[in-house]
Specification:
The complex is a heterodimer of chains A (233) and B (249).
Chain A (H helix, E strand, L loop, with lengths): L6 H4 L2 H37 L3 H16 L2 H15 L2 H9 L2 H27 L3 H9 L4 H31 L11 H12 L2 H30 L6
Chain B lengths: L1 H17 L9 H28 L3 H16 L2 H16 L5 H27 L2 H9 L4 H16 L1 H14 L11 H12 L3 H38 L15
Helix pairs in contact in B: 1-2, 1-9, 1-10, 2-3, 2-5, 2-8, 2-9, 3-5, 4-5, 5-7, 5-8, 6-7, 8-10, 9-10
The chains are: A mainly alpha (233), B mainly alpha (249).
């Protein structure tokens, strides 16, 4: 075993480039799937608020599936399973356009949407019914009351859970490695195979992941402090 | 499609259930369940110790425990698995099988998450319990052991059960280091058939869904029972702050 020397990795332009590329891909996957998850979560929330039993059932089934099947299995099902059902034309197009990353963003985003929508829903349930009645009495319509009165409070209530789930979405981006996306964990394995400095590479990646996660938690803390009402809960 | 699924299950049910067991290592859903049960059972004492250390005022206890919890919360499980895979043979001097690697990682990871649940349960009890115990002549340690912990741990039982569901879902990551478990078995079937990936992985998802859904349902029912039981005893509704603390891989 060689002596401990993390600089041997960091100062080597080749290894540094591989790790940076990996980190970039991790960010692309995490941010892409976060945006997809959040927009889909709002749609799911709207569906559950709609007065249709059938639509509500669909939303419940969606959340139940995505919360009870492991994320890795969902990714495998998308990448190996669903892709094989697509018409040839679509498969060629996907293979030309980085299919792994597309399916990783899709799989992680669809999965996390279930968690986000549940967070928002329990945030909304915690808003007292008097708020809606008061908003309606002041002349807001149903949509207006939701948009200007209920949702701001719901999001404030849901913030801690949303931040936690955003951190786990970021961590889950490492699962994309299993379907061959060249993100940070994948880059770590590659650098390890070339440099034989396992300890140093793992340490660098662990610190990078930890710092990013702590930054998301800190940003969430700031947001919560800004969103808190003076004298409120 | 459905005929395909039925055929695949009929031809491979034993592999999905126990892997290549009599002729090879135990795998399939049996290995998945054993791995999750063992990891939660071993993580539980770890988590109580971590939670007590996190509540202690001694910096030598507080800071290391806090560091462990934050590392587990901030670093992907996959990265921790790679660490154990690399470190355990160096520390012990033995080549450990993937199953043991996965178990060690899950005990640390689950221990950290469970400790937050246990800590939440202790904090949710309220100061009066500790004060009353001390007034009755208990010391700090014996009050914790006989008065606080039994109540706190009982209250967080549903959260522990949902953490068990998380553990089942997390064992799938063993696939990356070739631990023989359910996902691994499905992958073997897929490698034999080659032409029906969707059907094979759909069966895989379905099995996980059935197992995890029933356990989640059990956790919800247990929680309802505990809430009624506690509120019946004390006459006031109990605030279970720790129940929302579920995590997913």
């Amino acid at each position: 075993m060689k002596g401990f020397d993390p600089l041997a990795i960091l100062q080597n332009p080749e290894f540094g480039r591989m790790l940076l590329h990996g980190l970039e891909m991790t960010f692309v996957i995490a941010i892409g799937s976060w945006c997809l998850a959040m927009s889909l979560a709002l749609v799911l929330l709207a569906i559950r608020l709609a007065p249709s039993r059938i639509l509500e059932g669909v939303a419940i089934a969606y959340v139940s599936y995505h919360r009870n099947v492991p994320t890795l299995v969902q990714l495998i099902l998308w990448y190996f399973g669903v892709s094989s059902l697509l018409p040839d034309q679509a498969q060629y197009w996907l293979n030309d356009h980085n299919a792994e990353s597309i399916f990783a963003i899709l799989g992680l985003g669809l999965c996390q949407a279930a968690y986000f929508s549940e967070d928002l829903r329990s945030g909304l349930r915690a808003v007292s019914p008097g708020q809606e009645e008061a908003a309606r009495a002041l002349g807001h319509g149903r949509i207006g009351a939701l948009r200007y009165v209920l949702m701001p409070q719901a999001i404030r209530n849901a913030l801690p859970a949303l931040v936690n789930h955003s951190v786990s979405l970021f961590k889950n981006s490492s699962l994309a490695m299993a379907i061959g996306v060249a993100e940070l964990t994948h880059a770590v394995k590659e650098v390890e195979n070339v440099s034989f400095r396992t300890f140093e590479v793992y340490l660098i990646a662990t610190v990078v992941y930890l710092v990013c996660s702590l930054m998301i938690m800190a940003a969430g803390e700031l947001l919560m402090r800004r969103a808190a009402i003076a004298g409120g809960r | 499609m459905i005929a395909d699924i039925i055929t695949i299950v009929r031809d491979n049910w034993l592999l999905l259930l126990v892997g290549q067991y009599p002729n090879g290592p135990l795998g399939g859903i049996a290995a998945t369940l054993i791995l999750s049960v063992l990891s939660i059972a071993l993580a539980f004492p770890v988590s109580v110790l971590l939670a007590l250390a996190r509540l202690s005022k001694a910096p030598l206890l507080y800071w290391p425990a806090t560091a462990v919890v934050f590392i587990a919360r901030g670093v992907p499980l996959l990265m921790l698995i790679l660490w154990t895979y690399f470190m355990v043979p160096i520390i012990t001097g033995y080549n450990v099988p993937g199953f043991a690697t996965m178990l060690v990682t899950l005990v640390i990871y689950e221990g950290a998450f469970l400790s937050e649940i246990v800590r939440g349960g202790i904090l949710a009890l309220g100061r009066g319990q500790m004060e009353a115990a001390k007034a009755l002549g208990h010391g700090g340690a014996s009050a914790m052991l006989y008065i606080i912990l039994p109540q706190a741990l009982f209250n967080v039982l549903p959260s522990i059960l949902s953490q068990f569901v998380s553990a089942i879902k997390e064992t799938t990551l063993g696939y990356v280091i070739n631990v023989p478990e359910l996902t691994f078995a499905a992958n073997q079937i897929n490698n034999q058939l080659l032409t029906k990936p969707f059907q094979v992985f759909f069966i895989l998802a379905l099995i996980y869904y059935v197992v995890c859904w029933s356990l989640t349902r059990a956790a919800t029912l247990l929680e309802r029972r505990i809430v009624t039981k506690r509120s019946g005893l004390s006459g006031a509704p109990l605030a279970l702050t720790a129940t929302a603390a579920t995590v997913e891989p």
